[in-house]
Design a protein that fits this description.
mainly alpha; 2 domains; Znf_C17orf113; 133 residues; C17orf113 probable zinc finger domain-containing protein; binds zinc ion; single chain
């Protein structure tokens, strides 16, 4: 008798349940089930068979994307404010710095420029411009 978890996920184990156990005694099976080797194999099986979105690295990426999307939404909102109130694009930088200080948003310097403000406003205005044509 072999343990399929240990054979697949812990084949280097010296357990009798990897090489093949001759005994069919219930005590042997139970002691194998609570052994550290088997627990490691079972955990490996569970990790390998998780849905992709439940795996820690995917969760980290999803969370990172949510944080980045959240920051992008704030940048668009700030740009919308600049455009709607006809403020100079350079105010975009000051407002983002204020946002960083108030909310620890860590808005990238890459996006914090008057040129980026113009780009954000261009994208906000694009659907309205297309309607007018
Ligand atoms: Zn096992």
């Amino acid at each position: 008798m072999k343990c399929s978890y240990c054979v697949t996920y812990n084949h280097k184990s010296k357990s009798k349940f990897v090489s093949g156990c001759e005994s069919l005694r219930l005590d042997n099976v139970r002691s194998h089930e609570i052994s550290d080797d088997h627990k490691i194999s079972h955990t490996s099986f569970l990790n390998a068979n998780k849905a992709p979105c439940d795996q820690p690295i995917i969760k980290a990426v999803i969370n990172m994307e949510k944080r980045d999307l959240d920051i992008m939404a704030k940048l668009f909102t700030t740009a919308f404010y600049i455009g709607k109130h006809e403020k100079p694009y350079t105010d975009f930088i000051k407002l983002n710095e204020l946002q960083n200080k108030n909310y620890s948003d860590n808005i990238s310097k890459h996006y914090n420029s008057d040129k980026q403000a113009r780009n954000f406003i261009k994208y906000i205005a694009q659907p309205y411009m297309e309607k007018q044509q």
